[in-house]
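Submission checklist for the structure archive. All mandatory fields must be present; incomplete records are returned to the submitter.

[x] Identifier: Protoheme IX farnesyltransferase, mitochondrial
[x] Organism: Daldinia eschscholtzii
[x] Residue count: 504
[x] Sequence attached
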Amino acid sequence: MRLRPYGYLLRSSPLGNVCWRCSHQLSYANLIFTRAIAHATPIAPKQQSRLRAGYFLSNKILRHYDGSNPQSFTASTTSDEAGKTAATNQANHHLPHRRRQAAKRHAANAQDIPTPPTDAEAPLPQDASSALTTASTKHPANSFRRQLSLLLSLSKPRLTVLVVLTAMTPYALYPVPAFLSPSIGLDTPSLSPLTLTFLTTGTALCSASANALNMLYESAWDAKMTRTRNRPLARGLLSERRALVFAVIAAVAGVGSLYFGVNPTVAFLGAANIALYAGVYTPMKRVSWLNTWVGAVVGGIPPLMGWAAAAGESATGDGSFRELLFTTDAIGGWLFAALLFAWQFPHFMALSWPIREEYKATGYKMLCWINPARNGRVALRYSLVFIPLSVGLCAVGVTEWSFAVTSLPVNLWLAREALRFWKDEGFKGSARGLFWASVWHLPAIMVLALAQKKGMWGRVWRSIVGEPDLEDEEDEDWIVDHISQVDEVADGKAQKVTPPIGSK
């Protein structure tokens, strides 16, 4: 077979038009020719690729590599900070249009945000109020959906939902007889759904009122912090007059629902929570770092409200404040209040640490910047309290003893994160770890307590197999004895009042 000219050998062989033996000889000839001219003819420079490296910014190697300069990769690995900045700017220049615009917006927003220390963590995501405010701007100014979103954002929805849950859990865990069946001799359940409805509604309205008053007082300072500057009053999307009207209406409706639908004791606690949060805690944030302890007291009141609501349904006396909250039966409610009081510290100490410089610049007296070492110690100290509190709930008969075992891993997890937060002083991701541990810790404890209420699964088992419930029989005997005693006392009083027949 005769070889073609050298120019033909440089082109790809049309293997589809020749046999296998010829193509093999052509390949061998190409290899010999390439080796022969490698030392004689210089290789032509490679044509620059049409693809730019900026389109592959997700690849760290391509980010600093230029196809037209083979030495660019080596130079980029040894360049200083100025070279890296120039490379980044050049890469941003080659970005697609949308990514270029996003980079410009990010740079513009960064000019208004206070620069955090180089060792600080990124702030936590914005709260639900800021998210609702952003969503409201997508609707017309005077539309109902926009106004509703703005009013809901005044209530701090996530915080309000948490407050309602902390009131509902003690209500459901109150040790009343016949939890899963109607009460003996009565037509209504021992825990009334109607009472629970009034309790949740009134508690949510009281929380919404307190949060709205808090935003009214702090609107000027909220505008200076990255986490709160998107709230409706800080952005001027809602007038202060309308916010004040909303707060007053919510307070009146909430306290009224608790008074007429639950009992006066719970209504008093709801009103006290509004006054304590809006009238003491909020202004105290600019006076003393002890404001965190006042806020913890505010967080401990809703569990007492739920406990007093359940206690009022089974009260045998006048249902006074003393009977519902200051008897031996009320120990479980105070343990729940102590649990929520202690939970505030690891949660807030971790939440405030990433934005401590903003708290300082705004004038809020927070322990995270006044005394960072003590900030970590306080979080660790109160995270250890949950273990004895969980045992206490078992000891007073609110939950089964299995709750002390099942809650131990959750409590140890929170304590471990608090220990890291204290040792690392908030750095190395310890603040974020403690924050998320506290967020998941509270609902986990509540669910475990509800699942292991004292005597609940025994009643379920007896109802399934049809065995008699001894506890119900004891409750029935107690009710019969109590009714007979009341009748005897009433008959004695009637005999004293009614004169004998024939007397003058």
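[x] Structure attached
Curator remark: The chain has a mean pLDDT of 77. Residues 6-34 form one domain.
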